[in-house]
Amino acid sequence: MIDQKASDSQRVLAGILFMCGAGLLFPVMSGFAKFLGQDGYNSLQVSWARAFGHLVFMLAVFVPKFGFGMLRTRRLLIQLARSAMLFMSNATSFFAIIFIPLAKTAAITSIAPLMVVPLSWLVLGERTTVGRVVALAVGFAGVLILIRPGTELFHWASLLSVVSAFGYATYQVLTRKVAGIDPPETSTIYSSVVGGIGMFAVLPFVWRTPETPRDILYFCSLGVIGALGHYLVARALTNAPANIVSPFQYMQLIGSVIVGYVFFGDFPDLLTWIGAATIVGSGLFIGWSQTRPKT
User: Fold this and answer.
1) Angstrom distances, CA of residue 206 to CA of 43, 45, 46
2) Is 280 strand, coil or helix?
3) How far apart are CA 207 and CA 49, in angstroms?
4) What is the number of domains present in the chain?
5) Cys-Cys with 107: which of 86, 98, 122, 276 at CB 3.0–4.6 Å?
6) 3-state class of 182 per DSSP?
7) Under 8 Å CB-to-CB from 204, ≥6 apart: which residues?
8) Helices and strands, number each (H, E), in the chain
9) Chain centroid offset of residue 209 CA
10) Among the listed ranges 62-76, 149-163, 240-254, which one has the minimum average pLDDT value?
11) Torsion of the alpha carbons at 113, 62, 192 and 170, rounded to the nearest 10
């Protein structure tokens, strides 16, 4: 019994470390995307590299084990819709970080778990509670603190981060809709189909050949880092319950502060910290309330 408890504790710790690792990888990917955007590469090209690299990496991992049969889906339209939402989320986020600090973008997009609440009600028919609605309102108040509309500190690119959060929240809800219908490997592949393959129709109009070895490295790294980050999230959820490891996804905020300061010399001001704390607190409350036994 003691050995079993020790083993369970080790698995939970491993799950937490995997989630923290993902939270540090994603900001590095965003940092590379910000470098490319500031160098004049179109955000659609950068987003395509992220999606195409992810797609190639995942095919290389899954096809030898599952074969091409895993590409069959019973919900093609939903899979394409969730893929489009994920691409929209990445594209708007990569465009936003050209103009505003990584930490601010990460803080605003962390509203996505709160957006899942009303979207789950509309799309999945999942009922919510008054407490969660209040937490949702408080979370959006945190977004207003970050965006600061009507002040000199307002930047229109902040609104792109809100769009990014909405896209990612919709992607999560649609992912839950196909869960249990299509295998997770199938959903993982389809998540990058629209961005990785569909964007070939647009790519000739925005393409700019990478000019330096550094740029080539950044472009090639986007998909691999993103795929590894999602793999770490999957490993985290395999080792420990979601209600334990999910709060550690906010490590991405800390990672964004570190990457933003080291790479770009940006450090959040007091209001950014307050807004981020408000959003995180609301998200943690909703996550906690979902783990409480129903009465």
Assistant:
1) 9, 6, 10
2) helix
3) 11
4) 1
5) 276
6) strand
7) none
8) 14, 0
9) 27
10) 240-254
11) -30
| Percent of the chain at pLDDT exceeding 90 | 27
Domain coverage including residue 260: 2-291
Among 33-37, 109-113, 244-248, where is mean pLDDT lowest?
244-248
Q: Which amino acid, one-letter code, is at 260? A: G
Tell me the CA distances in angstroms from 107 to 94, 111, 149, 204, one per residue in order. 14, 7, 16, 33
What rounded mean pLDDT belongs to the chain? Answer: 84
128, with CB counted inside 10 A (0-12, 13-18, 19+), is: middle
Residue 119 has phi, psi (to 5 degrees) of -65, -35
Handedness of CA 232, 162, 264, 260 (dihedral sign): negative
- The pLDDT confidence band at residue 84, using thresholds 50, 70 and 90, is very high
Q: Model confidence over 154-190: pLDDT tens digits? A: 788 889 999 999 998 898 888 888 877 888 788 888 8
CA distances from 6 to 13, 60, 180, 195, 237 (A): 10, 35, 32, 43, 18
Tens-digit pLDDT profile for residues 85-106: 999 999 999 999 999 888 888 8
Which pTM does this prediction carry? Answer: 0.83
Residue 66: what residue type? F
DSSP string covering 243-255, please? HHHGGGGGHHHHH
Distant-in-sequence, close-in-space partners of 32: CB < 8 Å, separation ≥ 6: 218, 221, 222, 225
Average pLDDT over residues 259-271: 87
Angle 111-240-242 (CA atoms, 0-180°, nearest 5)?
Answer: 30
Position 226 confidence tier, pLDDT thresholds 50, 70, 90: confident
From the number of C-beta atoms within 10 Å of its C-beta (0-12, 13-18, 19+), residue 140 rates as middle
